[in-house]
Amino acid sequence: xxxxxxxxxxxxxxxxxxxxxxxxxxxxxxxxxxxxxxxxxxxxxxxxxxxxxxxxxxxxxxxxxxxxxxxxxxxxxxxxxxxxxxxxxxxxxxxxxxxxxxxxxxxxxxxxxxxxxxxxxxxxxxxxxxxxxxxxxxxxxxxxxxxxxxxxxxxxxxxxxxxxxxxxxxxxxxxxxxxxxxxxxxxxxxxxxxxxxxxxxxxxxxxxxxxxxxxxxxxxxxxxxxxxxxxxxxxxxxxxxxxxxxxxxxxxxxxxxxxxxxxxxxxxxxxxxxxxxxxxxxxxxxxxxxxxxxxxxxxxxxxxxxxxxxxxxxxxxxxxxxxxxxxxxxxxxxxxxxxxxxxxxxxxx
Length: 349
Description:
Layout: E1 3-10, E2 19-26, E3 32-41, H1 44-50, E4 67-74, E5 86-89, E6 92-94, H2 100-103, E7 116-117, E8 136-140, E9 145-146, H3 153-156, H4 162-172, E10 180-184, H5 188-200, E11 203-208, H6 214-220, E12 224-227, H7 231-236, E13 241-246, H8 254-258, E14 261-269, H9 281-285, E15 290-293, H10 299-311, E16 318-321, H11 326-334, E17 341-345
Parallel strand pairs: 10-11, 10-13, 11-12, 13-14, 14-15, 16-17
Antiparallel strand pairs: 1-2, 3-4, 3-8, 3-17, 4-5, 5-9, 6-7
């Protein structure tokens, strides 16, 4: 198979600073499209994987699964996209297409070959996948999403991971009028959860360590904002919520948060800490409460999310940076010093 080389930023080894390099991209297949990447979001999971926090990675590693750009070329049998279309790529670039989950539009849960992650994975061609911290990417047309005109490409990029990660559980567990939703953490995921839950018609409360971002949370659509460092929060909000979305990648006292749910309420875990979470069985037996997880969304639901965001005028709150600032951005993400998503201007790569 022939390749073309493109510029990218890669971590040459675990925990190493990212540096400018070149990587191979496959030539267009009949059903592939080439995307000129305009913007790539920096997700906390990029840092976890560069640090080998979720297991042994494939290096050199080019992170980035929040990709927004424009179609630069199409394969001979492509029907979904045309040159010039605004498109995005999220957390996966392939799957078996044949298992029950794939046929149901749940490609993220592919039970055949498993989904192929946008980076830090081996594609079905046997080659490593490289992500969006690069100038171009070649993907199957089936795994590229249409970005509606109502969203700017820079604000759309984080929707391809952060947006769908919170949209899916909010939709599945019925966030809407008459429902009380709590969002734990106001970061890259949490700020989109607040925006989307509010747009769905739910009453939204942010649960954060401190009140430092309270003004932001209320502007984004929350009607209440509480500090979890204050024990009174857990007393005053006991039994209040129908749904809690936990977006943080840190170990929390799960039992304390479960106490905030109404009977038959659900706590959905979307943040992915590197250590195990523990809970008392009585925290779920009492009130018949549930703890659930949610993993991004399939291709149809991701398109649904993008269309929903365009209809409601939603995009991520972003800080656009040149590629040379990626390593500094990583440090700032780890220090919670971003409001609320760094986005790389790919023209600077």
